[in-house]
## 1
Amino acid sequence: MHSDYTEKVVEIRGLKKSFDENHVLKGVDLDLFKSENLVVLGKSGSGKSVLIKLMVGLLRQDEGTIKILGKDTEKLKLKELNKLRLKIGFAFQASALYDSMTVRENLEFPLTRNIKGLTRKEINLKVEGLLDSVGLPNTINQMPAELSGGQKKRIGIARTLILEPEIMLYDEPTAGLDPTTCIDINNLINQVREEYNTSSIVITHDLTCAKVTGDRMAVLIEGQFEAVGTFDEVFTTASDPKIKSFYDYNFIK
Amino acid sequence: MSETIERNRPVISKKIDKFFVGLADAFNFVKRFFQEVWFPPYEFKEILRQCYEIGYRSLPLISLTGFIVGIVFTNQSRPSLSEFGAASWLPALISIAIIRAMGPLVTALIAAGKVGSSIGAEIGSMKVTEQIDAMEVSAINPFKYLVVTRTIATTLMIPILVLYVDFVALMGSFINVNQNELVSLSTFFVQVFEAVSFLDVFSSIIKSLVFGFTIGIVGCYKGYNSSNGTEGVGKAANASVVMSMFLIFIEELLALQIVNAIRYA
């Protein structure tokens, strides 16, 4: 685990977001440092996914600022935002693989759209290399419908990695997977950080995933971060009953 | 205070609000299409793929329907014309009816059911499974890739399908006329071409372009704005068909008024 973080790649201040009467985020502050894996924990509906969707501009905040790699996302024009998006990989909860495309086409799609002038050989090399690194070289010609949940997650992560992002956002990477596949995905998240030197935000409510992948935890409860720190700082000495119950539930105490 | 006022507002007022918000939303969607269609990337490959899906894949159903319409319409018209000793006018009557109205209308309605629903369901399912969001975060313009391509494809393919249906329906009509009145193919088509004017064919093509655009943009709009999981996908597909058909009938009525105004000016 890395311990010394100085360079901020994400800086969030006073972030608020509501959907009608439902105030999801109530003034959130958060920093992500270079090469850090930050885990955002919280129960379903606590606004974890909303937080990362705001970061990539899929949603617009009501108040507050989000600075990614020094750029205030709200002040960016679409063209500039798209440039920034290329530096952010977003692994969706349900993988979001394109149903009508094979695995190869899924990986090629963002690559050929954003990087012009690549030869067929270069594209193949990149796609096959990535499938190798996520351990699924044999799925290259398969359709997403033919893959298991864990395989879909891996391909989804591979697809985001094809543009070599600096920041990875994982939305519930282990949700709906069996324990063995969860271990594989957790290892893959750590492997991605080591191989691609990415900084990551992992959204989850799975404490095992949090413990294995995260350098720091941030617990989101009722639209605000109740605790931020290492796993031990947040959970082992937790006195807040909300955080304690979260821990107890996950580890069946 | 404002929350209390909102809660106590009559249902009808909320529905009127919702209607106008929906109308503005649809208007903005169409506006966005016309803003984006002129600028690269043009996605020719995807347009071609959609043309194949929409045009070629619709041929069996369209052929069968066109052929049957030709036979049935001829058969049903014969008794009335025969009563006035005008059965020889059958080719002229049928050709005018098919080219001016039946061909475009039948093709558009079938396409609304087959193509419109499939566009609505496909884009709707992409929306609820976050595939559209995945495009957006990869800096790919999903509107351009999904909406513009499909709308261009329907706009181009429906007129071609209409011309094809006109031909197939006339062939169906010819078979019926040939069996009953012993009219040859050349005599049948000489009568057809004598009866049909340039304005008939031209207005039919223009009308079909509008029908095609309607089917594409409505299917895309309903799919793009679907929500609530798989239930929303079903609703999007259904709403695409209902809304397209409704608009096609209104457009047919308007086109009739415009063409008649030109014809009798």
## 2
Amino acid sequence: MKYLLLKHYRGGPTPAADWPPMDQWTPEEVDAHVQFMRDFAARLEETGEFVDTQALAPEGAFVRYDGDGRPPVTDGPFAETKDLIAGWYIIDVESWERAVELAGELSAAPGPGGEPIREWLEVRPFLGGAPATAE
Amino acid sequence: MNEPLLRELVPVVIGVLVRRGADFASAEDAVQEALIRALATWPDEMPRDPKGWLVAVGWRKFLDSARAEASRRGRELAVQTEPPAGPAPAADDTLRLFFLCAHPTLPQASAVALTLRAVGGLTTRQIAAAYLVPEATMAQRISRAKRRLAGLPLDRPGDLATVLRVLYLVFNEGYGGDVDLAAEAIRLARQLVALTDEPEVAGLLALMLLHHARRASRTGAGGRLVPLGEQDRSRWDTGMIREGVAVLQTALARDRLGEYQAQAAIAALHADARTAAETDWVQIVEWYDELLLLTGSPVVRLNRAVAVGEADGPRAGLAALADLDPALPRHTAVTAYLHERAGDLEQAAALYAEAARAATTMPERVHLTREAARVRQLLRP
């Protein structure tokens, strides 16, 4: 079963802790955080659960069709108050419980003082395709 | 199995098939199929005449698909099924393929893919993995590119500048999947140097070699970017630097300066310094002036400002930035660096953080965040 672990720049439930932005950590704290992320991906590959990870730039816009012969309408940049996706992991795991366990591990990435940052991650199951035996 | 040899033969064999009467698109498909067969069977049994094997298998694949196509259309097969023997000007064939695959009418991504397949001898799967797109997408990109080229004569001189830009793009992609694209670009550039008589081709090869020589020192623990000034210079590949400098000197002696030669000259001056402090920044600024005359590029002016900052002090560097568009990529990062050198640490930290938010790659974002963190640490009592 595939799950999306979504990381947000902002939005989601109230943060469990109020950390300063990363550029105000010490260089060693930044390194430790980055190393944790790399190790997490490497561990998922080892267990055969890794599918993909990508990060998104914070800019962009909403876009929609506005009729034939007219250019699409854009709505952007994103409002400061809106939910904003930062990136994701896609994992392929045995169960919902395993997906939650992994999201919990990822959320324990170290922050200032090596403390787990306890960031909220959104976990979403993928809708699969129709199995061959469903007819 | 000798994979480099196999890959070198790919453009040569495409040339043979085209001279026997196959059109480029079909010949290229047929040789790709022969290549995939070779990759599967040569490890067990290497043919005694690898080129002859590839020509025979490729030609058979071509005839099969040409017959299928002819019968589908109810027509006679137009090409001779018995290939004429004849001299094989293989070098010219490969050069023509370089020009055709990097034809100026092609979108850059297509030119890159087609060059890697038809001249580089990579499989569609390898190219797709290197550029992180599905194999079917890459196959489609390549066949659309070939359709676009249909009917173009294979024997016209092409646009060398486009070929060089394509190779430079491949080089900058670095590692992708199981293919070392930087090494592949160097291999192709070497080939092109042997096939042409243009100092700019040698300039590009020199530039690639001089950058590639520093590759091991460019990333540190945890994959983090290590800027030039902090690199462990004992890890630079001195043999490759010597070769790059020699290639560059021969090119410069021709007295036909171009942008790749000028960029290589700057890289050579960096390579020449045993420590960052020994860097000859005054000469580097002079080369940036040359490069600016050749290109007029704002990116060059941005990099020149860094060199000016080192040669004449950070205030001079900031002054050199003055009339550049702040929206230019890396402008904020460069400004941050010059402010740090000038001792404006508060401003430098804020600018590094701003540059990190605007960074377009993950390693760059991490690097700039870390720079902001480092400068803020200096500010703490």
